[in-house]
Amino acid sequence: MKKVTLGVEGMSCAACSGSLEKHLSGKDGIMNASVNLVMANATVEYDETKLTVKQIEGFIKEAGFKSTGLFELKDEEKETRSRKIRLILFGVLTVIFLYLSMGSMIGIPTPDFVDMNTHSVVYASVLFGLTLLFLVYGSDIFLKGFRSLFHKAPNMDTLVTLGVISSFCYSVYSMIMVFCGRHEFVHSLYFESCAVIVYFIKLGRFIDGASKNRTKQAIKDLVQITPSKAVILEDGVEKQVTIDQIRQGDTVVCRPGEKIAVDGTVTSGSAHLDESFISGESKPVSKNAGDAVIAGSIDYDGYIEYTAERIGKDSTISAIVRLVVEATNTKMPIAKIADKVSGIFVPAVMGIAVLAFVISAIFLPIGEAVTTFVTVLVVACPCSLGLATPLAIVVSEGKCAQNGILVKKSETLELAASANVIVFDKTGTLTYGKLKVAKFRNYSTLDDKTLFCYAASLEKLSSHPIAMAFAGMGAEIKEVSDFQNLNGLGISGKIDGIEVAMGNSALLSSLGIQSNHDDDEAEFAGEGNSIVYLAVGGEVVGLFGVNDLVKEDAQKVVSALTARGIEVIMLTGDNETTAKIIAGRLGITNVIAGVLPEQKADLIKKLKTQKKIVIMCGDGVNDSPALASADVGIGVHNGTDIAMNSADVILMRDDLHKIVDLITVSKKTIANIKQNLFWAFFYNCLMIPIAFGAFRWASITINPMIAGLAMTLSSLTVIFNALRLKLIKFDKGE
What we know:
The chain is α+β, with helices and mostly antiparallel strands. 49% of the residues lie in helices and 19% in strands. It starts with a strand and ends in an 11-residue tail after the last helix.
């Protein structure tokens, strides 16, 4: 199975994206299709043995839209400038149009040769000619409207198209009657309605498009953040190359003021780098030999050389862009409701418009019946309904991305807003994971130096945070064979042909090794140490007490989460005594200790069966089963290997306050979406009856021009409300 994201032209409302999504999902060979209105793209998972990308593009065309090929965040400045110029020109024509058609009605003198009463033929001809210009200007709307109608998936464009064409045809009929000498028909010309409706639709979409472009700016900035050139070393000689010429393994040079060209690892030198674009942290980060560097980071003050590792599409920047784009292509449950409503709403409006026409034709002149028909169609266009959810999602996810919180799926925001339990892994999440050997007991005839050698040699091959405590012991390192990582228990291997194992008491039990050192274990654990036994040749020879440091902000974060009514649980494979000491420092009362990674996942599932919405926060590697099982999995990450992380949310910087920030954004995003949906539904519930003529008895009516303006204002209300999410203030933990 493959996944491809294609750009799509021609979508203008939720009904458009919904109909395309339904069309694609129904095709053989397509496993999943998600269409994003705001980003104007479609992400399709398909069976490459049955379909090609070209065939998928054909399916998009069948649905009445156009594929623009593989989706890229391209520079739209020229296109936007062209659209703005056309909008200004037709804005001037709209003012002229309204002046000619309505000036005399409100007492503004108009040129005599186009006076509707004395020169009705010239008047009708001029308005007809101007209207043709507007019909050409709005031809894209009409083409999409008819295509959607023919594909039995009517949308907003269909409503506008039917309304404008109906008004235009009736006006042409009236114009012909004027030409035939029936000058009273000059008052039945509705050409200005056609023109103004088209203009307001174009104006609304221009503003909408500009808003969407602003919400994508954070992603565009990431795309453009890497330098175009870099300096590499070839046989000790510096050579300037373009980014695409850099290969894995090349040694790249970076000086003060320059940017890191590609992801890599520092081999020599030291510097402070600005990584704020990816972590949200303005404070420069110190980099020395062995440290990872990320493309786009700015070198403040030092000369460094680093080995190129991740290039092009494999780089951190590319992975972030890819994940953020894919995230906006997933749908919240609340968004799916809006899509379903839009799919029913458009056909219903068409039925209401026909009914309004029939009733009006019975009691009113045919011209007013046509006007009522057109007004209902135009005023009910679900622009605001289509924008209510996706725009808020894109704005909030952009806000998160700018602050080092990478959300992979948009439904995560809805779940995080409802979460009532958060489970923290201890080591490396609530604690720094920078361990040291605080205590040691030797139970053998071997000297301490030999035991330290065994321990350091074995732990050197381990990726567990505890291994770091043994790396700084300065012991001799020997070769290890038959190394095994025993998940949740410890590690084992052979040194000089002797079986050596290190781990917790559960490891000893699994290997059938007896231990008579419970008192020492209790003493070590009582001082907050993690317990590590050393067994050589099937016998316990040593006991290490390894200590960890609690993160400075952990206690404040726990307090902030508890204050929000969220239950905090600490989960660890460590022994219960040590775990409770750490938990006590943090103010956590619910502690579950001595669990394996698989058992962590089982606990998460158990909490979910109790109807709890669970957030799991871990290191993204050892806690993968639990992260995948939770409603929301949060990986505390170093920002250099995000594509491998199984979490739903990745914290690009080791800052637990970002969890509080995520919940803040989630709650405000859901509230914002509900506000948008309310105003979109309220607008239609209010305006459709007025357009229908239900309040004609009270002299409350509207015409197609006012309907077009009202529809645009409705969309603007939703747009500006969604953009308020950019103003969210994050908790700095101060």
